[in-house]
Amino acid sequence: MADSTVERIDKEYPEATSEARATRKAKPEATKRAQLIRMLRAPTGVGVAAICSKLGWQAHTTRAALSRLRTAGFEIKREQSSNGGPARYRLVSAPGREWRSDGR
User: What CATH number should be reported for the domain whose range is 32-98?
Assistant: First the structure.
């Protein structure tokens, strides 16, 4: 029985196979959406400036991402600082899940 193409390549190029396996085992980095959700889960919330800095976005992109999360069913609370500082955003609930006050 003839070797399949994959088996033949594995035999001819063993270093490519080990590199491919190492690449597959590597944990993928979190998406920017996942990073944003993680930031919003903080008990004190997060400001637009912090999101922009962390994700490399402009303010209008950050606000658009917050809007998309709301459209997807996330409840995000906007809290204005009592001392006139910038607003902070906090994740209150996600589709099918309530968040605890400690952000977990």
Answer: 1.10.10.10
What DSSP assignment string belongs to the chain? -PPPHHHHHHHH-HHHHHHHHHHHHSPPPPPHHHHHHHHHTSTT-EEHHHHHHHHT--HHHHHHHHHHHHHTT-EEEEE--TTS---EEEEEEETTEEPPTT--
Q: What would the pLDDT profile of 25-74 be if each residue is shown by its tens digit?
A: 555 568 999 999 999 999 999 999 999 999 999 999 999 999 999 999 99
pTM flag (> 0.85): no
What span, in angstroms and rounded, lies between the C-alpha atoms of 90 and 54?
16
